[in-house]
Amino acid sequence: MKAVAVFPGKKEVRVIDAPEPQLQSPTQVKVRTREVGVCGTDKDIVSFTYGSPPPGSDFLILGHECLGEVVEVGSAVKGLQVGDLVVPRVRRPCPHATCPACRGGHPDFCITGDFTERGIKEAHGFCSEHFVEDVAYVHRVPTELREVAVLTEPLTIAEKSLRQWEHIQERLPWRPAPGRAVVLGAGPVGQLAVLTLLRRGFATTVYSHSRKPNPKADAAEAVGAPYLSTQDVSPAELVRRVGPADIIYEATGVVKPAFDALEALANNGVLIFTGVPSDKQPLTLEGAEFLKQVVLRNQVLLGTVNAAATDFDAALEDLARFRARWPGGLERLISSRHPPEAFLDVVTGKAGRGIKQVITFS
User: Source organism's superkingdom (predicted)?
Assistant: First the structure.
């Protein structure tokens, strides 16, 4: 079968002819890949700064944002049938009995670091014509979400983030109502966070680098989120224009803007980090002022990665809500679709830029 693979030892990325996987247990399903989203993690992997093949393999099949169609089910599979659309989760638990997170079904909080991630860390991904997965790690997709369901996995980042925010804010003596939110960055993760925050009632502003006009600003403002450029508006001016932010949602992976924005965080606010910088980015902080602000204002800095099964379920429910509230809003995020042979050009930007690029399998 056709698959897109990276060879770290040779520093190569190419389409290969890989063995077609077969069911190995009665609880597995075989899936025909329909679409695979391309993201910054893929760019890091093809730049050979991140990612690792399965043990014993010299290559890693890429792809972790996936929509597929079930073509075969094991004898013990319940709740899925041939023809169903599905999205798979990415992370698999570590093997250690001493890891309460993985043993409790929450590998996104693994304490050992010995988890695997399909298409990223020691497990082949989904950018191939077929893949096999245990039914426990796939989620059924309503057919009406066919055109946008490839956005499920990046949406789970926001779902998990806000689920954690709700738990954190239980520290307050009152139940906080949705207030103001600022999203740093206007890529796919940022745009999906905007929809998630708006849906929950937050007055949301996008604060990103590029000046208007640009497609990312258009997408944000089309759903009611004002767009401001960091080139024109300082964090202090941001506060004057929209007020202190109860949530700042970082979706850039760029260190300095993330910490500069702390100036705009409200008392009792939470700064959520979701970006993972791929290169060395030095940072200078006024340490005393930094600690003074965070302590005296009761602020929280939260880092979050990956997502749990409940976040995938929530993402699929929200995709349906988003389509009903903002017709065309999700479709606007998918800039173009390309064949597997174009993967390297897509991930490096040679095939054109936009918000979300998608690889399709016929």
Answer: Bacteria
* Nearest partner of 317 among 172, 157, 196, judged by Cα: 196
Strands 227-229, 334-338: pairing is unpaired
What fold does the segment set 2-141+334-360 form as a domain?
Quinone Oxidoreductase; Chain A, domain 1 (3.90.180)
The DSSP letter of residue 278 is S
Per the confidence metrics, is the pTM higher than 0.85?
yes
The angle formed by the CA atoms of residues 355, 358 and 360, to the nearest 5 degrees, is 165
Task: Decide: helix, strand or coil at residue 154.
Answer: helix
Strand blocks (E) in the chain: 2-7, 12-17, 28-38, 60-61, 65-73, 85-88, 91-92, 116-118, 122-123, 130-134, 138-141, 180-184, 203-208, 227-229, 245-250, 265-273, 300-303, 334-338, 356-360
* Burial (CB count within 10 angstroms: exposed 0-12, middle 13-18, buried 19+), residue 281: exposed
Distance in angstroms (rounded) separating the CA atoms of residues 119 and 112: 20
- List per-block mean pLDDT (blocks of 10 residues) for the chain, which spans 362 residues: 97 97 98 97 94 97 98 97 98 98 97 98 98 98 98 98 97 94 97 98 97 97 98 96 98 93 97 90 90 97 97 98 98 97 95 93 86
Sketch the domain layout of the chain as residue ranges.
2-141+334-360, 155-303
**Backbone phi, then psi, for 337, in 5-degree steps?**
-120, 145
Homologous superfamily (CATH) for 155-303? NAD(P)-binding Rossmann-like Domain (3.40.50.720)
Longest dimension (CA), the chain: 62
Whose CA is closest to 166, among 179, 175, 157?
175
Tokens representing residue 54 in the block: 């399965």
